[in-house]
Structures are given as C-alpha cells and as structure tokens.
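Weekly sync notes, structure subgroup
Attendees: PM, AL, DS (notes)

Item 1: joint prediction request from the bench team. They want all two components modeled as one assembly rather than separately. Inputs as received:
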Amino acid sequence: MRRLTGVVGAALGLALVLASCGDGKSSGDGSGSGSKSEVIAIAADPLEYINPLNENGSPGIQVAMAMFAPLVTTDPESGKLQNVMADSVTPDKTSQTWTIKLKAGNTFQNGQPLTAKDYVDSWNMTAMGSNAWKNNGFFSKVDGYDALNPPTPDGATPKPTAVKTLSGLKQIDDLTFSVKLKVPFSQFGLTLQYLGLAPLPEEVRKNPDAYKRKPIGNGPFKLAAEWNAGDDIKLAKWDGYKGPQVPQADEITYRFIPNADTAYNEFLAGNVDFVDVPSTKVKSFKTDAPDQWVTSISSGANYLVIPAWDARFKNPKLRHAFSMAIDRKAFADLVGLSEPAKGLVAPDMAGYRDNACKYCEFDAAKAKQLLQEAGGFSGPLNINYNTTSATGQIFAEAIGNMLRQNLGLQVKYTGKQGSEITELADSRKLDGLRFGGWGHDYPSIEDYLTPMFKSNGDANFAGYANPALDAVLAKGDAEPDPDKAIKLYQQAEDIALEDMPLIPLYTKSNAYLHSAKIEPRVSKYVGVSALWATFK
Amino acid sequence: MIRFVLRRIVAAIPIGLVVTLGVFALVFAMPGDPLRELAGDKPIPAAVLAAKRAQYHLDDPFIVQYLLSMKDILTGNFGTTFAGADIADQLRLRIPVTLKLTLLANAVQWTLGLIFGIYAGFKRNGWIDRSLLLATLVLLAVPGLVAYFAAQYLFGVELKWFPVSGVLEGFPRSYLLPALVIGVLGFAGLARLLRTSIVETVNADFVKTARAKGLGEQRVLWRHILPNALLPVITFIGLDLAGMFGGAIITESIFNLPGLGQFMFQAIKLKEGGVVVLLSTLAFISFILINLLVDLLYGVLDPRVRNV
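Output from the run, pasted for the record:
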C-alpha cells in the first residue's frame, strides 16, 4: 500500500519497487576472478535491519527480494502468476478461504526445513499490533485481525493481547495452511507475491532483534560478510534456493547513497553497475550514458486530487471541466518520460482500457461550457504542492496556468511539506487541489480501485465515497473467474471516472542506468530488475 | 587558571539549556508528523502508529518530551531513531567521520589562509594581494552546493583523481576532495582577516620601536608582528572550527560521508527532536570547549588578557 501523494512521479508499484533495486557492480573490482558480481546503488539511507515483515519501504523490500523468496511471483515473460515456495494456492468457491500448499524440500539458509508453521507463526507475529511491525496492515483482511489489534487510546502503548493468533490462519499439515478472509477477495492469490510476507525461521522468531543484522532467509542470496550499522550489504549466492528464475550473479553489493545525484555520479565514474535516474536527470540521462540506459513502461498513475469535503467542487461537471482544460500532452512533456493518462489505472495492468476516460481529452471550449453548466467556480483556486520535491512548484504552476487560461479561474499556490499536506487532507482540512500518485502492490487493477476509490480506502486521497462503486468492487472481489472479475472492476473504474474524485494526469516511465557488464531484465509485467540482470 | 576554566564551564550550563530548549522547540514547531514522514506517504496501520507514538513519547506535551530527551542525553541512554537505528552506534560510527573531515578541511583552510594572508600582508598591493582580493570575492560568491557537485563531477567522475563519494577508500583519500573544497571555499575569509591584521600591526608604534632598536627583520616578524597579528585570527579560527559542523550537513550529504552532519540532516528531515537536540548538545559542548581553548591560548599569546 504505497501512496505517493504530493511527490509527483514518485509512484512505484511493487513490481517496479523490486525492479528499481537493480544495479551492477562496475568492472573495477573483483570481476577479474570470473565470478559474476554487481553493485546496485540505492538512493536511500542505509538500512537498519533486515526483516521483511517489518519493512514496507522500497530499499528494504529490494534487499528482501534478494534474500527471501516469495510464495508466488509474476512470470516476467508471461505476466502470469508462478509458484515459488508455494506448490499451489487454491481459493474455495467463494474466494474467501485460501489453501496454500508449500513445495517439499525447501529450507532456510540455516538448514532448517521451511514449513507451513513458519508462515503461520511469522504472520501471526506481524499481525499482532503491539509488535508494531510495518506489514501489520496486510493482515487486516484476515479473520481475527481485530482481536489482535484492539483500539488503543492516544498516547498509550498497545499491550499484547491475550489472543496471540489470527483465527483465520490455520496450519493443516507440515506443508499446508489456510487463510480465511473476512470477506471474499478474488485477488488474494496475487497479493501473496509481496516480499513483506516472507517467513522467518524459528530462531529468528524467538528474538528478531538479535537477528536484525544477520537475517536468515530462504531466497537466492545470503549475507556474504558480517554486516554492521552503516555498511553496504554484501550478498553471495545461496545454493539452497530451488525456486524458478535463478539470478546469474554470484555476488551482489547494495550500496546506500542517500543523495540521488551523488549515486548517479558514482555510476558515471564507473563505480556502480545500476542506478535509478533521479528526477533531476530525466532530461539528460540518455546523453550522459549512451547505450547504458533502460526504461520501464510505467510506474503507476498520477493524479490531481479534488477534495470531496469542499462543496465548491461538488458538481461532477465542474470536475470534468477541470479535466478537459488540462493539456495532458504538454504536461507529460514537462514531466518528462511520461504519457498522458487515459484512465485511472496504470497502462501495464490487465484490464487497462485505452479509452476509459471520456473527459481526458484536451478541449478548452467544451471545458468552458461544462464549467458554465456547473455554475462556475467561486473564489480563487488553491493548488498545493510539495516543497520537498524539486519539481513540485513547477508542476503546480503548469496546471494552474492551464486552468487559468482555459477556464478563466483565479489561481493561487501553496507550498507545504508532503507529510503536512497528507495530514491536512486526512483530517479533511486541506484547501484546494493537490497532486497524488499510486503504484500497485500487486499487479491487479483492483489495487488501484480499492485503495483510492472505495469508501474509507487506504489511499482514498479525495475522501470520496459512492455506495454504488463499493457494491461493484465487492462483486468483483467475490468473482472467482478472473475475466469476469476484471469486467466488474472496469465498471467500478467507469463510475469513478464519471464522478471524477481524481483527475488522471500522466503515467511515468522509470529510467535506470546500467554498466556495460550487465543487461538488466526488462519485462512489461514486472519492470526493470538488475537483480536478475544478464551478465555479458 | 582552574577557577577560570570551571567558571566558564558552569556558566555554559544555563546557556546550554536555553540553546537545547530553543532547538527542540524549533524542531517541535516544524509542520508535519514525523512518523508519516518516515513512512513516506504510505498508510500506516493504526496499531503500528499508536505503538510508535507511545515508544517515542510523541503524544506527550512539548516540555515533557524535552525533559525526556535531556534525561536520555544526561544518562547516556540514547535509544533508537524512528527508523530503528541505535543512536549510540550511530555516534560511534559518525563522530570519527566528521572529526576527520573537519580537521582535514581546517588544515587545508588554515594552511592556505595563513600562507596567503601573511604573504599578502607583507607584500600588499602586489599581484598576490590583488589576486587574493579577486579570489576572495569569487569564492565568497560561489554557493557551496554548486561547488561541491561541480568538484565531484570534475575531479571524481571525469578526471577520477578522487573517489566520487563514500568512505570506502578510508582516510585521507576519501576525505580529500570534500576537505579541499571546504578549505578552498573557506580560506579566503581567514586570509583577508590576517592580511588586514598584519597591515595594522606592521604600522603599529611598537613595531617601529622594535625596528628603531635595531632588531633584525626576522626577529621583528616572528617575535613582534606575528604574535600580535594572530590574535584576532585565533578567535576567527576558533569560531570557524566550531561552525564547521553546520557546513558538514551539506558536504556530508553530497559526498555521502556517514558523519554527524548527514545524521543531523536525516534527523531534521524526520522531525526527530531527540536526535537533533543530542547533536546540537554535542555541537554546543565542542563550541564551548574550543572557545575555552581559544581564550586560554589568548592568555598565552597576550599577557594583558591573562587575568581578565
């Protein structure tokens, strides 16, 4: 659940988050021995611990991706779900209870066999609110979550509850367990590819803090050297990994370089093999590193968010007018590496329609007419932008100018910290428009519609609620046939587009640089990954 | 002497309290919720948020939070950052980095400042003096941010004379480039001050008297001019050394040096009052100690201030 409000262009889907970790070690050191090694630059502060269950940020999940194997994953070739640790994932007729059977013979890196108990116990630990682990929220769909997460008064420390386990989680035998959800959810199988659901072995579960710097995973790589605070993370191939898609690298080093421009310079100097292109280099990376760049199709969707609590924006015709007054092509060119949005979901999702949005064509005359029919707009229009983003103000002024010129609106701008904008919006006090973005955690159009448009959705930036849309979503969630489910989700998208609580703006590609030594995997389904890079 | 030192230290305590209280208030007044900032824009489950808020006392009133922070600092019980880093670990890791950078940068700055300042002072209006004036104006006008990135690109990426960033190549190699940039950007002020001071001293009556007594030029320079001309410079150097910490915030971020400046930057970004106050306290203590040292040195160089 990654919400990207205010940080235009920062949206990353899980697939892309995973992808963004890739980076190759330059030819400088260690490559003479014939072993395949790469250095991946991560533009973030160094990690403090490796525990995927307590980690939902991009850097932590990137490292988890190397060290832990998920239950299932998306096949980069076909885009279909592929088993990794799971042997089968089977829903019942209503998609409410899911049975997960593990492959036999998998172990942790300490040699212990990987069993259903490891999953059940690790998940129960995470679902216990008093542990304050970051992926706690994932389990809110599971039966019994509320008993482990009773409401706590402000300022009080949540106490461990008498109940220690999710009632919906049941171990059936050594290799089988089942998950009963609160309500039917046809997309649950897709969510199991999330690395934040990794199993922890028993010795780690007993004292997670003692293992925060010496994690025991079950994935293709293990720690190669002792890892201390502030160090780069050095990984070596682990032969015990028996899953599909074995990476080619023998060694991987994750280098943490908090300043993204500095990380980019490290690449140009030949010291790292893979790096994200920072927003400041979007216009220049192709000439900075000719023949050494790749781009991915999409990193989610970016929007202009309309506050539902402000009565001045109530009329849908006014929202349509705003939408049609925006020249998306010009705006996408300004952002760089972007395409005008034509719907509410990212274009690489199954179920995406090129013609979903009727009101996304630029038509100043029609926009003006719609605004008139809506009775005009009263008072100056405020556009909020994030002051910590280098481009926040530029983008705000670009949108403001279009609305001013094409609709004759009076526009003003307010710069604030991203977290302050979010806080104001969450308490329904934000005045005016702001930017928002979303990247999926699992590849389903449902992961755009539920968080953003369902009443009280996780990332319902606009404070939007429509019972008709909720009802169609629930039908889609209960529909076991994937094609029929997509049809229902598309109906929900149509309702949201008609109400237009968010105005679709653009979808942005991600860009990466890679050294001549490696060729990162580029998949239209999972984006770009250096972890699975091909060595030349 | 000991009484003087003790008096200064005791006098620093109330100032320290005011400073830390002020810094804490500034951090407290910053907009935005620190835990939200930490999570990016991701929704955080209520239970996790409640547990974290309670752990870091974020729901307590301002003054309680401040007192708890001070208690932690005084008892040496630093705890962890919001991101889970052990603060004592971080200090052990980061203090040497900042010390190495600061001392090397200061060595560069003092060397350049003393050489150019003394030379320009004695040969005023010569070409070195005039070039120095020009260089001073240029250097003082270049924004640090631009200079750091330009130097990193030119000497790290293009010429490959220095590592681009990080401390992988150890001391002094990893620290040379940032230290040189800081030193070059900073020496101009010192050189100008020293030049002016020397010019004033050279024309002072006691120098004329010394010369009239028939003392050799070397003796006049080393025993009469320099000790007097250096007095204001020592104050400047003391303040400068103490102020280096502020500059380290930008340098350490751009050159990816895991020092206290980078730590401070993260802490401010995350609104982490406890860490900001801890680092401010460290900065304050070093400021007090350096200034004490400067005053003691002053007494050695100038007997007139010994009993003030």
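Discussion: Chain B touches chain A through 50 residues (CB under 8 Å).
Action: AL to compare against the crosslinking data before next sync.
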